[in-house]
Amino acid sequence: MVPSVAALLVSHDGGRWLPAVIDGVRAQRAPLAAVVAVDTGSKDDSAGLLQEAFGDVLRAPGSTSFPAAVDLGLARLRERGEAPEWVWILHDDANPDPGALAALLAAAEADPDADILGPKLREWPSLKRLLELGVTISGTGRRETGLERGEYDQGQHDEVRRVLAVNTAGMLVRRTVVEALAGFDPQLPIFGNDIDFGWRAAAAGHTTLVVPDAVVFHAEAAHRGVRRTSLTGRHTHYQERRAALYTLLANAPGRALPWLTVRLAFGTLLRMLGFLVVRSVGEALDELAALLSLYTHPGQVRAARQARREQPRADLDRARPLLSPWWVPYRHGLDFLGDLVAAATNQAQDVAERRRAAAAEHAPASYAQRPSQDDDDMIAADTGIVVRFLTNPVALVTALVVLVALVAARTAFGSIAGGGLSPVPAGASDWWRLQVETWHPLGTGTAVPAPAYVLPMALLATVLGGSPTAAVSVLFVAAVPFSLWGAWRFLRVVGRLVVFTGASRWILLWGATTWSLVPVVCGAWGDGRLGLVVVASLLPWLAHAALGFADPAADRRWRAAWRVGLLLAIASAFAPVLWLLAAVLVLVVLAAAALVVRGAVRDRSVWGPPAAAIGIVPLLLSPWWIPAVQRSAAEGLLLDTGRLPTPTADTLDLLSGRLEGLGAPWWLGIVVVALAVLALLPRATRIPVLVCWVVALVTGVLAALLGTVTFDLAATSVDAGLGVLVVVLQGALVVAAAIGAVGLSTEQVPWRRVVAGALVVMAAAVPIGGFAWWLGSDPAIADGIDTDIPVYMVQSSEEGPAHGILVIRGSVEDGLTYSIRRGDGVTLGEDEVINTTSEDDGFSADVQALVSRPTTATVDALGSSGIEYVVLPSPADGDVAAVLDATTGLVQASAEDRTTRAWQVDRPLDAGLLQGPASWLRILLLVVQGVGVVVVAVLCLPTTNPRRSRP
């Protein structure tokens, strides 16, 4: 006996798919007892097509949900007096294969216990890509199909098996089962009703099978957002996520409900973070809205759970074996991270690869016949990574360069201090405290904000286990290798931009190595100038990101803006003068572009990205910049970071890339200048070389202007910071020389080989000489910071700010200076705070009185200021020592050095004067900075869409 089957087709604005679907229904090899069509307020010709094909069409309003439409169809069958054994549910975007129904019925006959059967779903219109072969749900609410993304149908899943649920697109279900389960849940109007129905059916003891021989082609119009209705709205993801959470909470066993409630809340936060990382802000908000819609209306879930308990023979544990394994969400998390890393890696090809592809279409025949480097790489890939490495001289030399750099940086392994580098604090918490404090107990107390680089240093130290020592060591050890990597990437892209064939790997190696050695040969590395070392390491990466401004796609130019802005903010935190140079360069480049290509900069997508990149920096660094100006410490925005005095640079230093009195021999830098001048000769690369020279010229002019500026600080007078300009100028000349070498390699002139040979010798001398000098140098960071204060006093000062040490140096004849040591002394990050703090005139008057005509009130003032000891380091001035010996309230203290004199203040110690008011402005700026960093970081990341791509 042939079982009776009624097809129930639900439609809403499906006119584009219905003709094929109607043909598919009519072409079924198995007979249909009846066809019921329900149209839910279609605005296209869907109802007319159904009327013409099947005669009777139920018309319902557009707000009718899918469960309600199915109920209407079943009611119409009852009205007709028809009681089919099976109901075949179809969507208007689901086209069944002619043998689909026959295969489903055959499987039902083979397994009499089967109550619900579903087909293999394949993508429409691709027809070959698998969508579903049964479906289940994970503990986090993810719809699980067990298929790989984009998996094609090759018969690899063609076995009938039991599943939790099948899609309603093509579901064959016994009519009595639908009625016994009260149909689909009306709380799931469009999404998730298939899983909920299958879960309830399994709990009631019914069997659901997937039948791969039955094939239905599904367009998934609602899921992909191709079709929007009043039920889906514009927030499809919200509806899907709410359905998933509801299904879990309504069907989970009661004992698991408390843990599930907490897990879903925490999981939603993680999912929101994931969507923000891939710049899907709307979907992140949908996640939160879906969770709140259920958690703020718990009555919906309670009613659903009550209805399921009243279901006959209900046992929720029956569905447990059909649910997704517990480890699946963790696998998806790893897949997501892999996708993100892959997207971030692949984006590096952007401008150069597209230009190279475009140039290949118009390349000369000689190029077309010449095997590309990529082809060589593909051929060599089969020989193995180890063999390729050992037979590649460039790879071997590169590895040798990195190894030599690590050996030369051996001094930086472990704790380092000396030169311009202060000792690090005890833990990362000290940097965090310095970052968030609005008033610092340094000296006599100050509201000058912590320098901007404290935040990235605190973050790095936290990542490295809370060790500031490890953070500083990593920066100094990895400076050259990291810069080498970035310079190679940048020069490779530039080489492909200027010449179709790209730069030779030997040229890339020379340019990258020479550029990476700039912080070493200029003297910044050995002198402990942390700011310059970090900027030199980031500069190639910053330049690489800036290449995105030349991308023809406006979206990519804006993406480049966020990346450049973030990198520039980090670099400017360590060397604030860099932001000023970047702003001037942007103005110069935009002005030149307006003169060369009139009207080009009128497009906001042309001038907007570089302007945004410049504007982002003050926003991200506002907790430092604005309070610094407010506290009369604005000079800190034009100074190099580190201990005073900071090195300066004259004209020769700028040209040779050296800081005053530091660095490798000056002639190494002059060789780079000569190579950069000769780089102007090849015609093929003259324009990009001129661009490098423009950067160098602008840098030199700015250095000349800043060289005339001097700041009078409380301790001494210093010049504006020129260190970062030395680094940038030298880097521009190195790039110019590398580009010129690329151009020379393409010149077809008789004397090319002779000139090239001479230039190779000159060029090779630069990195070789730089490494030789570095290996034999004696860096100041290995010397440490000597203290002439007795150890027991240092240990006492570490007990708190109230145990300060007043250190008086000099003599009456030459002049006296003083400083105050508190805690563990001046550590990295505190130099800039102390250097830019204005002199405390009241305390200076007390010190002056102390060394001339001290009174009891003077000594009392010392105790009130938290001064426990007074020290005259060797050689102590005898006149001052005699005055202090006779001062009431000062008790002589022992000193390790006979020529050092020390006294203890015999007065109650109080650090109350070190306390200052909280600055709500800076607290607000810190919040703005935190939000800004997160937003900009998200905008920098590549966009990936975890949902299936739209057809």
What does this structure look like?
The chain crosses the membrane at residues 394-413, 458-485, 506-526, 532-554, 566-597, 664-681, 688-709, 721-742, 754-775, 920-941. The chain is 52% helix and 10% strand. It starts with a strand and ends in an 11-residue tail after the last helix. The chain contains 37 helices and 19 strands. The protein is elongated and about 120 Å long. The protein folds into three domains: 5-230, Spore Coat Polysaccharide Biosynthesis Protein SpsA, Chain A (Alpha-Beta Complex), CATH 3.90.550.60; 371-781, no CATH class; 791-914, no CATH class. Helix 16 (393-408) packs parallel to helix 20 (505-516).
What is the secondary structure topology, with strand pairs?
Blueprint: E1 5-11, H1 18-26, E2 34-40, H2 46-54, E3 57-60, H3 66-80, E4 86-91, E5 94-96, H4 100-110, E6 114-123, E7 130-132, E8 136-137, E9 143-144, E10 161-162, E11 172-174, H5 175-180, H6 193-203, E12 207-218, H7 236-251, H8 257-277, H9 281-295, H10 298-309, H11 328-346, H12 350-361, H13 365-369, H14 373-381, H15 385-390, H16 393-408, H17 428-436, H18 454-463, H19 468-498, H20 505-516, H21 518-521, H22 530-546, H23 554-574, H24 577-596, H25 604-620, H26 622-630, H27 651-656, H28 666-678, H29 686-706, E13 710-712, E14 717-719, H30 723-746, H31 752-776, H32 791-797, E15 804-811, E16 815-821, H33 831-835, H34 841-852, H35 856-864, E17 867-872, H36 878-885, E18 890-893, E19 901-905, H37 920-940
Parallel strand pairs: 1-2, 1-4, 2-3, 6-12, 15-17
Antiparallel strand pairs: 4-11, 5-12, 6-7, 6-11, 8-9, 10-12, 13-14, 15-16, 17-19, 18-19
